[in-house]
Amino acid sequence: MPAPAATVYVDLPILQASLAGASAGQGFIYAAGEALDPGHPVVRFVAAEAQAGRASLHNAGRDLNDRLRRKVVKRDPADQCPAGQVAAAIRADPGLARLLKVLGEVRGPCPSDARLAELARLPDRHAAQYRLRRLIDLGLVSKRNDARLGRIVKVL
Questions:
Q1: Could you give the C-alpha distances from 62 to 1, 33, 71, in angstroms and in order?
Q2: Is the pTM of this model over 0.70?
Q3: What is the per-residue pLDDT across 101-151, written as a single tens digit (0 to 9) for each?
Q4: Which bin fits 121, alpha (ψ -120 to 50), beta or left (φ > 0)?
Q5: Cα pseudo-dihedral 19, 22, 26, 32, rounded to 10
Q6: Any residues with CB less than 8 A from the CB of 10 and at least 6 apart, and which?
Q7: What's the pLDDT band for 153 if we cut at 50, 70, 90?
Q8: Which one is the CATH code of 81-155: 3.40.50.720, 3.50.50.60, 1.10.10.10, 3.40.630.30?
């Protein structure tokens, strides 16, 4: 079996100029190959853009040579502020809004993850756990464990 082809990257100055002039939602393929080199300047650039909230990173299928294509998409500046990040997260995952509504109606200890999934119409307890962590990370809820009452979740 032949070794996989090396990953190829676009020219960094061209990618920087393209992304700077792009409108929100516009994306560009920045690499094609199975593995990214974290030290490559293009990878460092797109990672920094994503970390700063100016772009999001995606897999974009395979090219004609069966190499995995990597895409960077410019984000809407309104989605870069904390309120915008919350709105963008909820638009991308309606399950977050359903879980937030359920948590807002809870009085006393928080139900089990399985029960939260059922109440929020999520596929399973893992989906509820993931979304609860996302809501905490977004600063919409807080969680604490009480020795007597168990898990207490509060909508902020």
A1: 19, 9, 11
A2: no
A3: 888 888 888 889 999 899 999 999 998 888 888 888 777 888 888 888 888
A4: left
A5: -30
A6: 28, 29, 30, 31, 42
A7: confident
A8: 1.10.10.10
* Type of residue numbered 31: A
* Residue 39 to residue 33: CA distance in whole angstroms: 15
| Predicted pLDDT at 54 | 84
DSSP secondary structure letters along the chain: -PPPPPPEE--HHHHHHHHHHPPTT-EEEEEESS---TTSHHHHHHHHHHHTTSEEEEEEEE-TTSPEEEEEEEPPGGGGSHHHHHHHHHHH-HHHHHHHHHHHH--SSPPPHHHHHHHTT-SSHHHHHHHHHHHHHTTSEEEEEETTTEEEEEE-
Beta-bridged to residue 9, according to DSSP, are: 31
